[in-house]
Amino acid sequence: MRSNHCRSGVLATLFLAFILLSGQLCTGAAAAVLEAKIGLALSMTGGAAAYGATQKQGAQLAVDEINAATGAAGIKVVPVFEDDASQPQQGITVFNKFINGDKVALIIGPTLSNTAQVTDRIAQQAGMPVLAVSNTAKGITEIGDYIFRDSLTEMIVIPYTMKIAREKLGVHKVAVFYGNDDAFTKGGYDAFKKALADAHIEIVTEQTFAKGDRDFSPQLTQIKGKNPDAIVVSALVEEASGIVIQARQLGIPASIPIIGGNGFNSPALLANAGEAAEGVMMGAAWNASSILPLNKKFVEAFTAKYGHPPDQFAAQAYAGVYLACEAVKRAGSATDHKAIRKAMSEIKDLDTVLGKFSFTPERDADHTPVVQVVKGGKFAVFGE
Amino acid sequence: MDLLAQQLINGLFIGSVYGLFAVGYTLVFGVLDILNLAHAAVFTLGGLLALWLVETAGLSLWLAFPASVLACGVLGLILDRVAFAPLRQRADSNFSGLISSIAMAIIFESAALGLFGARTVRFPAHTVSVHIWRWGGISITSLQVEIVAVALLLMVGLTQFLNRARAGKAIRAVAENDRTARLLGIHVDGIIAFTFFISSALGGAAGILFGLYFDSLSPDMGRSIELKGLAVIILGGMGSIPGAIIGGLAFGLSEVLTVAITGTSNLRDAVAFTVLFAVLILRPSGIFGRRKMREA
Fold it and tell me: What are the C-alpha distances in Å from B272 to residues A4, A208, B234, B267, B275?
């Protein structure tokens, strides 16, 4: 099922023209248009402000496009943006406002998993559908049947990455190197370990580092001595950069790829490691250079509107608004939360910037991840 | 075999940076019997200052290095004037000096935070051209060689200076007994200030080398080396210059070998400090330490 209402009219000029007309539309034939109020709880301040800002831009672009395409029987999205301040307490306030004050159709957000752990329980109790667009931690969708997410978790991205590495690069034995004193890097390690076992890839050695380490040469020297086909690394971007640089300095050739988790998926890696980052591989939910036609349009429109290219957070927020719009449209109501929840859970193979999108029975995102490789100082899609 | 050789090289490299850091640390201790806990903060500022000179002022590293080292020397003079000199006449000057140096460390660290931000920063690419040499399975970068060379040069230079130069001999005289030195006509306060200058300059140099090699500088980077530096000078014998050099190398090697053998960096500090503990039981005054006699 395709949603033409939601997808057309992407060119920046078109919706710029529409913005001029939109005032008339609101006062005009608004009666036939289904008006969907969507609450967006995004971090505009605090630790996650950088992510929240780009999420808001992505979401706003989607809203503008949808409203620009609103026909007589279409949907008009009324976004209500609120700042969760990167804090669970503020997130609770925002969610209560959305549920009791604004009476929104559904909520998109919050930015951080930590906040979601608290706020989503409130939404679940109130029977308010929530679509997470950036939470990847465990236990978010487990909160209840009203909680969805369009952000792919490591448990899907990593097995896919390892499958590609085995099939396309002939990786049969790897060294694993991870930070064992951090929940995120340890979680990545667990996902890698399971994926490696499932793909029948042998682990020749496991080495660990601690948060704040700068010298990785002893571990990398040991790894080099084991001659692995690839080095699998679960690290945050600062440590990841140091590992990549020092591996190449120690003479581990570029023919032995370094495969990273989500922590590697940051422009900071390219800036920090420079040439040493060439050939580094990582899985991701989305890549700017993906050749999906929908994605190309999105990247062009986003760049035209904001003057800089979108990142994964913007893409997931953008896709999130379209998913929300689709659910409301299928439910045929902007107030019947039960129907919206049901319609959302039935979304299958919907064309989005993330690819063909479905929800798993557990309401997690299901679409094909991309495997990226650093090429010429940029993240490119592996094999393209 | 290649593996072991490579690990020894890794340890030698990090050990020489520890050594350089500890030499400055131990120099002040040898002269004043005071631990200057702001040494690690000077180390941090040295690295960040050199980065600023390269990145913002656009100097080449060959100019930025000596400029930053000199600036750290001046920081040492300030440290002496502000934190130590006013307390010198007090009976408990060892203890109160220690406390006021902690205050200076906090001030310096906050200054670094305010001036350079909390982010981890890096030298721009190609600040130094890095060439990689390989023999069999061993690889050494030209940067590593340069860093070890600079560290050794500075350490040997310091030793020679203390043994041969007039000012160096004066430092040793003050270390031996400041009252006698004063009676002999040595300008003791000047010599102490000069000692701080050299000590902090060396600390700053260690900071630059550390930052260059790991290519990652942050206002809290001094914390990772502060305790190690202390352990190194205890291991080598408080106040002993050769002890600090040997102690630094030993500490670096023990760290690297621990990580290599266990495959994890969690035990790194534990083993290093256990070795320190064992040395202290067997030789309470450290490897090169002598009882009742200080040398600088």
Answer: 66, 18, 12, 9, 5
